């Protein structure tokens, strides 16, 4: 069965065509910088006759245009991998916010779409783009089953003590104000990999997903029991452009003393803060360059970023009353050795001791980077949200057949 996976972000669409259950990636790529001057499409096909790689820079005004272009690549007589969109049997969509309604993967109906739309205000950077991806895919892959895999679903096992907030009960009961948690597809995928790798499911794990958005999850016996993100994907860790945890007094000060509107506060905390606010750059590779040139702001930003992660490791270890393994994943977690080093420094009280040489010289696949005295396993595990989405879709359709 061919499953097309779409991870539709605010300015990009990541995609993969995967043959299931073989888990064979037929093609993958990305449409980036949608709506900006120079958009870019990357396409990589893995064919028996050899791999084909194409990149094109052109104006792509909308997600709809971007996905249509991807469909043209997929069906191109020379470099394509299918002859007709009808050969795609299912389209799996990453949907960031599923609220309390969706604890599992869903076949998309008009009711599911209405709920995704209702949740726009809670994930304004993500759900509208996810929704658009669904509408366009319904047109292009009109005969395929459309399936939503929610970032929030994996966290629905959290107990009330982790997800409730200390505000009057009616705000939860009538309005669903609570913590939900995100990046669930990634946390689930890497924690399953870790449990397979370590040969046990009775483990206390902390998964640290560090991409553009960053979050951590406490995972006990394979179930998420707490996470650093909340009602929306804003709080917790310091991220590329998001501040993460912030004192509520700051918001009142911005509004009452500095004259900010609430939209301006939202924009400031979501899009202009985090590493961007501290250094002028949101990408760790740029910040590293400045760090090497002796930029003290870059040093402080790195220190703050790692310190916040340490705090959550301490908190989650206390909540689980123990810790067997820490997983680093996401673009930063997988590639940025300095972040991993700063996070694990001076953590021997909690049983965390890194092998600095292993941390510097990573191989491919799952890597252990603790030293021989460490009680806690330190793992670097490449995430694969697309494969996890394909697995979830395949599982759902198998039940349905
Ligand atoms: N070699 C690298 N060294 C340090 N950081 C990196 C490297 N490669 C990627 N990154 C970081 O990973 C981030 C992207 O992570 P990714 O998980 O792909 O993000 P997302 O899926 O949230 O868009 C980049 O913004 C950059 O900060
Ligand atoms: C939920 C979230 O923050 O997603 P991303 O990291 O893709 O922005
Ligand atoms: Mg991501």
UniProtKB/TrEMBL annotation:
GO cellular component: cytoplasm
Pfam families: Acetate_kinase
Active site location: 151
Record: residues binding substrate: 94
InterPro entries from the UniProt entry: Ac/propionate_kinase, Aliphatic_acid_kin_short-chain, Aliphatic_acid_kinase_CS, ATPase_NBD
Residue ranges the record marks as coiled coil: none
Amino-acid positions noted as binding ATP in the UniProt annotation, renumbered to this chain: 14, 209-213, 283-285, 331-335
Gene Ontology terms for molecular function: acetate kinase activity; ATP binding; magnesium ion binding
Domain of life of the source: Bacteria
Record field: catalytic activity: acetate + ATP = acetyl phosphate + ADP
One GO term of the biological process aspect: acetyl-CoA biosynthetic process
Cofactor: Mg(2+); Mn(2+)
Localization per Swiss-Prot or TrEMBL: Cytoplasm
Keyword Phosphoprotein: no
Cofactor note: Mg(2+). Can also accept Mn(2+).
Residues the record lists as binding Mg(2+): 7, 385
Residues flagged as site, Transition state stabilizer: 183, 242
Entry's family note: Belongs to the acetokinase family.
Record's function text: Catalyzes the formation of acetyl phosphate from acetate and ATP. Can also catalyze the reverse reaction.
Quaternary structure note: Homodimer.
PANTHER family per record: ACETATE KINASE, ACETATE KINASE-RELATED
NCBIfam families membership: ackA (TIGR00016)
UniProt-recorded name of the protein: Acetate kinase
